[in-house]
Write a structure and sequence with these properties.
The structure holds two protein chains of two kinds. In chain A, 74% of the residues lie in helices and 3% in strands. By secondary structure, chain A is mainly α. Chain A has a single domain, classed as ABC transporter involved in vitamin B12 uptake, BtuC, CATH 1.10.3470. A two-stranded antiparallel ribbon of chain A has the order 1-2. In chain B, the strands form two sheets. Chain B has a six-stranded mixed beta sheet, with helices on both faces. A four-stranded antiparallel beta sheet of chain B has the order 2-1-4-5, covered by helices on one side. Chain B is of the alpha/beta class. Chain B is globular. In chain B, 46% of the residues are buried. Chain B is 38% helix and 27% strand. The chains are: A mainly alpha, B alpha/beta. The interface between A and B is medium-sized, with 17 and 24 residues. The complex binds adenosine-5'-triphosphate and magnesium ion. Adenosine-5'-triphosphate binds next to β2 and α1 of chain B.
Amino acid sequence: MQLLWQILVNGVLLGGLYALMALGLVLVWGVLNIVNLAHGALIMLGAYVCYYFFTGLGWDPFAALPVAMSLLFCLGYLIQRWVLNLVIRAPMFNSLLVTFGLEVVITYLAQLLFSADFRTVNPSYAGANFSFFGATVPWVRVLAFGVALALTFALWLFLDHTRIGRAIRATAQNLVAARLYGVNPRQLYALTFGIGAALAGAAGALYGVVSQINPYIGAGLTGKSFAIAIIGGLEKSLYVLVGGLFLGVVEALTALYIGPTYTDVVSFGILVLVLIVRPTGLLGRTA
Amino acid sequence: MSDPLLKVAGLSAGYGDMAVLRDIKLEIARGEIVALVGSNGAGKTTLLRALSRLIPSTGQINFTGRALDELTPDEVFALRLVQVPEGRQLFDQMSVEENLLMGGYRRPDSAAVAADLQRAYELFPRLKERRRQLAGSLSGGEQQMCAIARGLMAAPELLMVDEMSLGLAPVIVDLLLDTLVAIRKEGVTVLLVEQDVFSAFYVADRGYVMESGSIVRVGPAKELAEDPEVKRAYLGI
Ligand SMILES: Nc1ncnc2c1ncn2[C@@H]1O[C@H](COP(=O)(O)OP(=O)(O)OP(=O)(O)O)[C@@H](O)[C@H]1O
Ligand SMILES: [Mg+2]
């Protein structure tokens, strides 16, 4: 019982981070109708930004997070503006190919630049923890969880309560009407993709403090983000959060009862099951 | 008409290889209500799409003295040439109020936008009652009100309304026509595209009749409405 409780707490904390990972993918998918297969690679880059600011300049990883977000925003904006805008009206297959190509290139470059070694971000307070109704909870994980929740909430506020956020939603719903009412889709798409990449950067920075990183973590993280998008649908950030928490808990339970090597098998099993039973998504609508 | 607000000359446009519009000439003066009528598939909507730059065209389009040919739809919109498109094209998953606010998307002055929102609610009290409702769940008439109000929120110089009366009860059509007459008094010029020829000529100052991609008649609306040929073709009299 004690163990189960500990596992549940771990799962929830991890799930918050998963939700943040998926959020950028979901935003881009919903607005641009592009499933960004390079999303995980962007998360990986965010993790390395944080790593180098931590080891090279001695920055606190949480202070490096805004830097990772800003850099990834710029990268995302440029990728959309100069690469993806060329295929935006093309069938989805084309954009899948292009983002797959991006994922390969980014991963390859990362391996050249950062080497294939495992890296960890270990701030001095990494070992500090407290007891939560008997479960041992590391402070960094709680902090990462809190930041992930705060960013999810911030995105929701931005989309629901700002002029630009409204334009982003309008464009997702009716492109022709949005163009007739003053939206420049190229700019708006670049901005949206930039925000998606910034969220990936944030998720990467947080991932670096709770887990090991190497250049190859991207593909698996894209897969997890995709699973959450399918579970939660593309409509509400809240559903993405629920999807993330769900996946986190399921993975933690799998690790406990079936074995840590099976977590991916089980989470993709769920993905396939959802696709078969409710192809429109478990909570909201998918594309 | 020494200095028209909109001046179109020699305009041709189509979809891919298919030519739809041929050599269109059209002028609208400030403060006019102009009706553009024609049977199904004549090319009225295509003309509006070309004016809003959703599709490319050849020939001249001048609006407030500026050539529109090289502009994108959002730039045309910023010049206050605003279209209420066929089929309303509301943002279905957004509330009525958010749809109206999208109309003011390019306006920097938020105080003026807020004032115009109140004005829109005065014009259409129904929309005020339903401002939190999703636009997609409004009735047809309410949706058309919402579409017109969204257009007005853009503070248009020229408002082009496509197929406003389609599928609406006569009372609602009359109400919407009255609204157009009212906003014209406030200085908005209106281009009204209609199948309902009788309603259109009733409120309009001048009319254009379009047939298979060309303008075939121009004149004061009252004259066109009395014209035996127009009557035969469009009113079945
Ligand atoms: N997106 C499109 N692609 C190809 N052809 C089109 C497209 N839209 C319209 N057309 C064609 O262009 C011609 C003119 O259509 P348009 O919609 O401009 O007519 P309309 O005068 O607005 O008719 P209605 O009164 O029925 O709305 C028609 O023959 C139509 O089939
Ligand atoms: Mg039409």
